Amino acid sequence: MAEGSASVAEVQSSFYKFAVHGDTKATGKEMNGKNFAKLCKDCTIIDGKNVTTTDVDIVFSKVKAKSARVITFEQFNQALTELAPKRFKGKNKDEALQQLYGLIIGREPTNVGVTKVAKAAAVDRLTDTTKYTGSHKERFDESGKGKGKSGREDIPDTSGYVSAYKGSGTYDDKVKEA
User: Fold this and answer.
1) Boundaries of every domain in the chain
2) Rounded to whole angstroms, what are the CA distances from 82 to 23, 42, 77, 88, 121?
3) Cβ neighbours of residue 34 under 8 Å, at least 6 residues apart?
4) Is 89 in contact with 69 (CB distance < 8 Å)?
5) CATH C-level class of 8-104
6) Is 35 helix (H, G, I), strand (E, B) or coil?
């Protein structure tokens, strides 16, 4: 990369994206230590050999204000200036910083290990109403839709003079026969 080829605005847009990542109240003007470490990890500034997570934490603590828990974009640049020579050994500070900017530009937080919805066969088997037996079977109609309260309770027939009389509605027929 030629000197000065990485624009500060491009680096700042990546800084903003990482600053608001995972924090609903973040304005994007300041970045906390967790997100700074994430930026370093996602942009491969942390390579495990020259720069480790410990180095990143130390640099973050060094550049932030004594009582603050966040860094501004200026402090972020200061932190990168400290990390650049470590990451790119054998290069002068400006070259190393430009290469570091190159790693950051255009990057966004990656969501590695986002929890996926488990679609286990066991769940399908347990919720398949066609395989229900016994009293549970009566709670669902043929389509597998639940019957609601009528499927759960024995609702007594309270119609007529004598409740649950099997021959209800036959009185008129008997009177006509006689």
Assistant:
1) 8-104, 115-153
2) 26, 18, 9, 11, 52
3) 22
4) no
5) mainly alpha
6) helix
What Cα–Cα distance (Å) separates residue 130 from each residue in 64, 74, 144, 148? 63, 64, 7, 17
Cα dihedral value 108, 112, 116, 122, nearest 10? 170
Q: How far apart are CA 19 and CA 35, in angstroms?
A: 6
Q: What is the reported pTM?
A: 0.57
Number of H helices, E strands in the chain: 8, 2
139: its two tokens: 């709670």
CB 14 within 8 A of CB 109: no
Render each residue's pLDDT in the chain as its tens digit; 178 residues.
344 455 778 888 888 888 888 877 778 788 998 999 888 888 888 888 888 999 999 999 999 988 999 999 999 999 999 998 888 888 888 888 888 888 888 888 777 555 666 666 777 777 777 777 877 777 777 777 777 777 667 777 666 666 666 666 677 777 776 6
Structure tokens at 83: 């990390």
Please give the angle made by the CA atoms of 41, 21 and 75, to the nearest 5 degrees. 65
Take residue 73 and report the two structure tokens written for it: 């974009």
